[in-house]
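Q: I'm writing a short methods note and want an example of a predicted protein-small molecule complex. Could you take the sequence and the SMILES for coenzyme A and return the bound structure as tokens? Please keep the output block clean; save any remarks for afterwards.
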Amino acid sequence: MQIRAIIPADHAALLALWQRTPGICMRPEDAYEPFCRYLARNPELSLLIETDGTPIACLLVGHDGRRGYLQHLVVDAPWRGRGLARALLDEALARLAALGVGKSHVFVLGDAPEALDFWQAQQGWSARTDIQVFSTRGAS
Ligand SMILES: CC(C)(COP(=O)(O)OP(=O)(O)OC[C@H]1O[C@@H](n2cnc3c(N)ncnc32)[C@H](O)[C@@H]1OP(=O)(O)O)[C@@H](O)C(=O)NCCC(=O)NCCS
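A: Understood, no commentary inside the block.
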């Protein structure tokens, strides 16, 4: 099993992985065209692990030149508990560091206890209590 960068042709298989994973919320940005735009804007950063040509773990990784942003960290259920998520995170943070991005964020839904437990357990990550996130879909 090797980590490699996600390419546009991975979209259908990743969509299937996200759709069969409880707790992963699909967004309009997960459609093929925005997915490809995201990969092009953040080359060689989003990662997957595959076996027999099928993705079993993935992580979407982007940055704004200052901070890294991680999304859709998923390990397919039969493959959990083997360090695959940790391996994806380590590789992603190394690739971001090589670009000069030394700090990253992940946004986790407050009603996702399993994901919150995972992030609470990760060394080097801490939950922020000093920040509230405000979001918009654009000018009204
Ligand atoms: C969360 C998830 C990605 C973990 O994947 P994984 O490959 O099983 O995780 P790893 O084996 O790499 O575990 C890394 C570390 O986290 C710990 N860990 C894993 N899952 C955990 C959980 N649910 N709660 C607490 N700790 C957890 C492991 O014990 C391990 O600790 P260690 O390094 O001290 O041994 C996987 O369970 C998953 O895909 N869940 C559904 C999707 C999801 O919630 N994703 C997060 C969205 S932000």
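A: Remarks, as requested: Residues 2-121 form a domain with the Aminopeptidase fold (CATH 3.40.630.30). The chain has four helices and five strands.
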